[in-house]
Amino acid sequence: MAVIxxxxxxxxxxxxxxxxxxxxxxxxxxxxxxxxxxxxxxDFASTVGAAHGVATSSxxxxxxxxxxxxxxxxxxxxxxxxxxxxxxxxxxxxxxATPVFADVELATGNVTVETxxxxxxxxxxxxIAVHQGGVPFDTAALxxxxxxxxxHLVEDAACAAGSxxxxxxxxxxxxxxxxxxxxxxxxxxxxxGMVTVDDAAHATRLRRLREHGMNVSAAxxxxxxxxxxxxxxxxxxxxxxxxxxxxIGLVQLGRLAGLVAQRRSLAARYHELLSGIDGLEPVxxxxxxxxxxxxxxxxxxDQYKSSRDEVLAELAARGVSARRGIMAAHLEPAYADVTPAxxxxxxxxxxxxLILPLHHALTADNQEHIVSVLRELSR
Length: 379
Prior knowledge:
By secondary structure, this protein is of the alpha/beta class. The chain contains twelve helices and 14 strands. The chain is globular, with a radius of gyration of 21 Å.
């Protein structure tokens, strides 16, 4: 039997420039958190419209630090979408608080003021809202609502580098936002994350929290010509990023605008090709914003002739590596002890959606082949 060359669902855009940047960092002799991390923090924050960036080892650790920064603790409730990678809910448990699952809207996969308000209680101290798959949530509406409720809004922007809301990058105006540089994201450092804030005092504490609670960074200590006796001001963590990762990130950051433009062009082509197929509803820009199309998902409707799982199986048999839609944390064994309010949109999206290949190496022929399979299965 001939081996089918699979069309991958995602390929990170990594080239010789990234390899050279990483090699230069290694040759410099400074590979731990240092000058390249500092520059990456500054450049990334500027790109997303924030005053300060604090690099971390992952977006999960970024979310954890955001909740520690806001003094979320046992007894507090934090509303999160179940429709998200499980790290969103896990971060709440890391600080001993209780995650409360909210439903999302079908069109964007994002929480809304209404879905959040329906599960809000007097114990609600914070909300983690996700820009799901790069689709921006309604930043204006959620920020206004959170302010009115007197709760903190943490923006999980793991997938959203390069997305826009109300004409601005999704990070602009956020009290605190967490970002991911995992290889599935447009901008990758292999692993890694970032917290962005506008408040200088918040940035100072976040830098301390990610480096064992030290009052002076290791980089500043080593740069000093005099002995520095550091102090450890609070119990904290080792959530640092390396200069090797940051070197790659700086190259990636220069590619971001071009990658977003290319993905939006590919998404437009998908929309064109899928337009005549009944029963498939692809993700689109919301009225108030623009997605980076980190993921291109399609909702399989009841009128479509095949089930989501049958579609995934046939695509795989025809050389297409697609994926199930975004997971629902409340359906996972780790959260079997949680009984949420009804989450009909969440369960429909996780049960009936799939993610199609979308990356810089995807060709027009690839897209036509993928959609031809979907068209056949619709008859």
